[in-house]
Design brief:
204 residues, alpha+beta, Rhomboid-like fold, 7 helices, 4 strands, globular
Length: 204
């Protein structure tokens, strides 16, 4: 995706196709690591088809966020942008909303190397703040950090909708009231009529 082309209404399909291309093996590898760790749980929440739609929408929002960030920069708007990082960022945002207490095994290198389980809320929250830090420090050369931010926010928003729907689905039902009415046997017109039963559930 070349932002200048998109601004002129050209090659609009690259808004989608660019998220399936990568600049090298390491670029692909690290995206796939994040997809492997966080993707399956998010897919469980959205469903197979919903997950594909979610992934594409997150990637599209990420591309638009990057485009807006370079719209006034002639040089940067002419640089080709590729990678699934924006869509993957959407997965991270969704994971933060859906599984904030899940522990992510994190490799920590200090005086020694160890693996520490860190709650997803802190792990992904810190990652998100880092994207803003890189932008403010001007170290965004070569990396579309605004695409990361846009994709993450899109994932947050979509996951909030899914979580609200899941809560509504799991919400306990109000009591079911059953009524039974029988026609008096003393009335001649009631002879042979079966009792009538109907149910009613009070809406909250």
């Amino acid at each position: 995706m070349v932002p200048q082309s998109i601004m002129h209404g050209q090659n609009l399909h690259t808004l989608f196709t660019s998220m399936f291309l990568h600049a090298g093996i390491l670029h692909l590898f690290f995206n796939m690591v994040y997809l492997y760790i966080f993707g399956d749980n998010v897919e469980d929440a959205f469903g197979h088809v919903g997950y594909v739609v979610f992934y594409l929408v997150s990637g599209l929002v990420a591309s638009v966020a990057h485009l807006l960030s370079v719209i006034n920069n002639v040089w940067e708007s002419g640089i080709t942008t590729i990678g699934a990082s924006g869509a993957i960022s959407g997965i991270l945002g969704a994971y933060l909303v859906l599984y904030p207490r899940a522990r992510v095994l994190t490799l920590v290198v200090y005086y020694f190397i160890t693996v520490v389980p860190i709650p997803a809320f802190y792990f992904l929250g810190f990652w998100f703040l880092l994207q803003f830090l890189y932008v403010m420090l001007g170290s965004a050369a070569g990396v579309a950090y605004w695409a990361h931010i846009g994709g993450f926010v899109a994932g947050l928003a979509l996951a909030l909708l899914v979580r609200k729907r899941r809560k509504r689905r799991l919400q306990p039902l109000s009591p079911l009231y059953t009524y039974r009415w029988e026609c008096p046997t003393t009335a001649s017109i009631c002879r042979g009529l079966p009792p009538i039963t109907f149910s009613h559930r009070l809406e909250k």
